[in-house]
Give the backbone structure.
Amino acid sequence: GESVGLHLPTLSVQEGDNSIINCAYSNSASDYFIWYKQESGKGPQFIIDIRSNMDKRQGQRVTVLLNKTVKHLSLQIAATQPGDSAVYFCAERDTGTASKLTFGTGTRLQVTL
Amino acid sequence: DGGITQSPKYLFRKEGQNVTLSCEQNLNHDAMYWYRQDPGQGLRLIYYSQIVNDFQKGDIAEGYSVSREKKESFPLTVTSAQKNPTAFYLCASSRGLTGELFFGEGSRLTVL
């Protein structure tokens, strides 16, 4: 079936640097995408979302980029802080069919001092 | 504060026992969900409910059961038929099926 593709790699970034976490999705009908942050032993927290009629959306220190041509989503975190250390998941949905969110496997972000 | 409360946070079970995980939300959300999370894997949907007294199977419903008698409550029972129940279980809710998901803090079940 359709899937959002993320292995569980680890991204190691120095404090203060920018982080870029990538996600590939395979369902071309998906039109809504979310990034979640999950700290160890806790539930995922919403970071930012984007709909397919946009290619970029900015939040506080975070930016999500969507490239529908190559079915690629990325999360950029500016000036990465130790508190950003967590597993980051992307999720996608085809709202036209009211389908459920499909989650990727996540990327672990480690912030080094 | 509005949110989702899961209990217990940690639970140990002997093989052959059923256990029930609680999930309560005060966000007035119509939709509620149960996910299972295993190490190195994404969240997998067990069951979801769009409205009271209605629920649907997700991708991995075998060995689980749910009920939705009240809007704010969506308990999950892990039955003895679930062959590999040790996992981290996450409950979530949303305003509708297409809305943003809000998650609880999770319940970690360990089968001894």
Notes: The radius of gyration of chain B is 13 Å. The first strand of chain B starts at residue 4 and ends at 7. The CA atoms of residues 94 and 101 of chain B lie 5 Å apart. The mean pLDDT of chain B is 92.
